[in-house]
Amino acid sequence: MEGFRMDRRHLLAAALGALAAPALPAAAVAQDAPAAAEAPALTPAQARTVDRLIDAGLEDARAWEILESLTTEIGPRLAGSQDEARARDWGVRTFKALGFKNVRIETFEMPYWERVHEAAEIVSPFAQELKATALGNSVATPEGGVVGEVVRFRTLPELQDAPMTGLEGKIVFVDEAMPRTQDGSGYGWGVQKRSGAANEAARRGAAAAIIRSAGTSQVRTPHTGNMRYDDDVTPAPIAAISNPDADQLARVMERADGPVELRLEISVRTLESVESGNVIAEIPGRSDDLIVIGGHLDSWDHGTGAVDDGAGVAITAAAAKLIDELPGRPARTIRVIMWGAEEVGLLGARAYARAHADELDRHLIASESDFGAGPVWRFRTGFGEQSLAKAAVFEKALRRLGVGPGDNEASGGPDVIPLRQAGVPAFRLHQDGRDYFDLHHTQEDTIDKVDEADLRQNVAAWAAAVYIASELDGGYRE
Question: What pLDDT shows up at residue 189?
Fold first, then answer.
C-alpha cells in the first residue's frame, strides 16, 4: 500500500497541460467538421472548471468533517434500528447545512433483525473459545446453543457436492478463504458461502453451519454480513469465525484423534416490519434531467461504519457541494442520496427505484461510492454503445489523479443496481480495495483507518466526474 500511495502523490503533484485540445486552423476545422461533431469534448472554459474542481477537491476538508460527524455522533447504524433513524435525521441536518435543496426523507417498511448474543467454542478435544459473529438474518439456536461434531469442507462447492445424508445433527464448517485483490473481485464468489453454507447444511439436516469469514483480515475480528434462506429449507443457524480462528479449528481437526465437537450459541431479535428510509437532497440544474450519486447510510453493528459506507456518504456530499459552489447552476440537477438498508438486501435502493419509476427516463446517469476510502484508480462506464466515445472525456480529465480507464461493464455500485436494471446508465470510480475487506463488516471499521489525503482524492475525482456528466451534451443511454 505504501508504495502505491507514493506513486499516487507523485502523480498528483505532476502538472499536466490544459484539458482542452489545441485549436486547429480554420480550413482543417471545416474539412474535419463531420468527425469533430462526433467526438465529444469539453469547451476550454469547461476544461478549466474541471481543473479548478480537482484542485479544490484535493484541498477540501468537508468529506472528513462529514465522516467524523457521522461516525462520532451516530456510530453504528444497523438497518431498521433507532440508530439508523437518528442517522436519517443527521442526514437531513447535514444536507441542509450544506445548502442543498429539496431535502427530504422517503420512508419504506422492512423486516428487522438484530443480534443479541453469540458465542462459539471447541468443546473437545482441545477446549477453547472461537471468535464468532452471527450472520445477518440467521435464526437463533435453541437456548444454550447446539453442540455437534464439526465436518469441514474446503470450499462451498465441496459442500454442494456432498451426499444428502451423513450430516444430520452435525455442524458444517466451510473453510473457504477469500483472496486479497485491488478491485475486490474475490468478494463476489467468496461471499456466496454465507447463504450457501446455511442452505446446503440445512438441506442435509445439519444442526448449524459456520464459515471462515468473507474477509481478508488476519486479526481475530470475524466479518458479519447478510444471508438469505431458501424457501425450501428449515433454517439452520449460521455464524462466521475469524480467519485466525478458522485456521485454528482446521489445525485442531488435523491433530485430533477423533471427532471435534463445537458449541454454537446465537440469540437474535426480529420484528416483522419497521421503518427505514432514504435521505435525498438536490442541487437544482438548468434542466430537470437527473444525475444520481450517493452512498448508503446504514452500517453493520460492530464498527462505526466509517469505510462501509460513511466514506461514500461523505465523498459524494462533499463533491456535490464543490459543484454547487460554482457560478450559476449545473446543466443537470444533481440528486444526492443517502440510501437506507443497503446491507440487508439493497432495500432502500429498491424502494427508490419503485418510488421514482415514473421519472426514471429523466435519470441521465447514476453512481454510488461504496468501496471504502482508498484512492480512486480506475474509471468504468455503463454507457450505451453510441455514447461510449464520451468516456474518453472523463478519462482524460481524471488522469492527473492517477485514475486509469476501465471497461464498459460498470454496475454503478450496489444501490445503483435497481436503476441499472431499469436501463439507467452508470459510471463507477473504483477505489483501491486491497485493505477494504480487512475492515468492512467488522469492529475494525472505524475512522482511524481512513487516510484523509485519499478521501480528498476521491472528492476531487467525484467532483470532476459529476461535473463532466452534467455538462456534456446529450445522454448516455444510446
Answer: 86
Rounded Cα distance between 33 and 30, Å, is 5
Of 266, 265, 180, residue with least CA distance to 215: 180
Indicate the range of 11-15, 155-159, 311-315, 387-391 predicted with least confidence. Answer: 11-15
Cβ atoms within 10 Å of 256's Cβ, excluding its own: 15
φ, ψ (nearest 5 deg) of residue 365? -165, 155
Amino acid at 437: F
pTM of the model: 0.91
Interval 120-157: pLDDT, tens? 999 999 999 999 999 999 999 999 999 999 999 999 99
> In angstroms, rounded to a whole number, what is the distance separating the alpha carbons of residues 233 and 465?
46
Beta carbons of 191 and 176 less than 8 angstroms apart: no
The per-type count for the chain, helices as H runs and strands as E runs, is: 16, 14
Averaged confidence pLDDT in the chain: 92
Domains defined along the chain, listed by start: 2-111+273-471 (3.40.630.10), 126-259 (3.50.30.30)
